[in-house]
């Protein structure tokens, strides 16, 4: 039991993984969307998602070439559920979380196919300078 708790605790101890969980509170997202908002390489985001999935905090589904992630709705440990519940009521006034939400609104305005095919080139100029290439696509 202690080991399961430790896995979940370590998963939420990383600021990037907390940002991912907060973004997923608004619903299912693909790696392309998360990569663009977080400003990280796809491999880095995928590694963070793997840790979260291993801790029972997120679930995934594949649709063609994309993998979509969402907060765990089942198959999670009691500890994972408690951490998700805590995150749901925490960090509402954090500036990084607030900025992520604003950027996510702008990313959601770009059709997913375009975002994943063109990466940051699909975003308005001011956003594309701050975001890395999505899904390995080059502008």
Corresponding CATH architecture:
Orthogonal Bundle
Main pleated sheet: 3 strands, antiparallel
- CATH class value: Mainly Alpha
Strand content: 5-15%
Q: Let me know the CATH homologous superfamily.
A: Winged helix-like DNA-binding domain superfamily/Winged helix DNA-binding domain
Specify the number of helices: 8
The overall pLDDT, averaged over residues, is: 84
Structural class: mainly alpha
Overall domain count? 1
- Low-pLDDT runs: 127-139
Quick one: overall form?
globular
Helix and strand string, N-terminal first? HHEHHEEHHHH
How would you write the strand order of the largest sheet?
Answer: 1-3-2
Distance between the termini: 47 Å
Percent of residues in helices comes to 55-70%
Instruction: Please give the number of β-strands.
Output: 3
Radius of gyration, whole Å: 15 Å
What is the CATH T-level topology? Arc Repressor Mutant, subunit A
